[in-house]
Specification:
Aminoglycoside 3'-phosphotransferase, Chain: A, domain 2; single chain; Phosphotransferase; Kinase-like_dom_sf; alpha+beta; 3-stranded antiparallel β-sheet
């Protein structure tokens, strides 16, 4: 059948066994098997003191949100075309979020992070995903993140594709389903994962209080714990500039 005039194509943004995001024109439809994710997302966006996409409607398991203007700060595995000023603006937005009152739901506990790290390192070793020395060294680096932190309002999944800019202005931050009280250095690390050369630009806008050692530790920790999930859900953490490259790069820092 011929495509009808005036209709928008359906674009699959991301899809795996847990959730899918579809784009139809300027509307994103997020389908999630866990209703708590959408609940957290809508509550977090209402509380966050940064630009967020408008919620159009919510009928579980579907959440409809409007597109935000601009383009993502970058993508994992490719150099970011955004200006230093845009990165600084992103840093300032993250700081506003971290300085905001904590959301009224629990965050991730330190013991949960440590247990997950141990389990994922064991899996990576058992499946020879990387040489044992790479895993061992990154597990050693990750230790610096396993310390008590003063909780802040964190996004919780602040990937570079989740921050949108137009020129040097942040126009929107998307995908808030992991938001809650947490370690602010985690957000800074996830945003610069694979783009370590932009950390100075980000921190120029973020201001004082960032701990570079802990940020580097989270680069290792995040890459260690995310790799199995990515592999099992059809993604490639070994693509250039992605998680396994991040882990190998830490060996050069030794």
């Amino acid at each position: 059948m011929d495509e009808m005039d005036g209709t928008d194509a359906v674009e699959v943004v991301v899809a795996h066994s847990q959730r899918a995001t579809l784009r139809v024109g300027d509307v994103f439809l997020k389908v999630d098997g866990d209703p708590e994710h959408a609940e957290v997302e809508t509550r977090a966006m209402a509380l966050a003191p940064v630009p967020t996409p408008p919620v159009l409607w919510h009928e579980p398991p579907v959440l409809a949100i409007a597109a935000v203007p601009g383009r993502a700060l970058g993508v994992l595995g490719e150099p970011s075309a955004a200006s230093p000023a845009a990165w600084a603006a992103a840093g300032a937005a993250v700081r506003r979020l971290h300085d905001a009152p904590l959301p009224p739901w629990p965050g991730t506990r330190l013991d949960e992070v440590a247990a997950e790290l141990d389990g994922e390192c064991a899996w990576l070793l058992a499946h020879a995903v990387l040489p044992a020395e790479v895993i061992r060294r990154n597990r050693e680096i990750a230790e610096a993140a396993l310390r008590p932190w003063e909780p802040a309002f964190v996004h919780g999944d602040l990937q570079i594709t989740h921050v949108f800019v137009e020129g040097d202005t942040v126009t929107g931050v998307i995908d808030w389903s992991e938001a809650g009280p947490g370690d602010p250095m985690f957000d800074l690390a996830i945003l610069t994962l694979g783009h370590e050369e932009r950390l100075d630009d980000l921190l120029a806008g973020y201001g004082p209080g960032a701990d570079r050692e802990v940020i580097r530790a989270w680069w290792s920790l995040r890459s260690l714990v995310a790799s199995r999930w990515l592999i099992e859900h059809g993604f490639d953490p070994d693509a250039p500039g992605c998680e396994l490259d991040v882990l190998r790069a830490r060996m050069q820092d030794s």
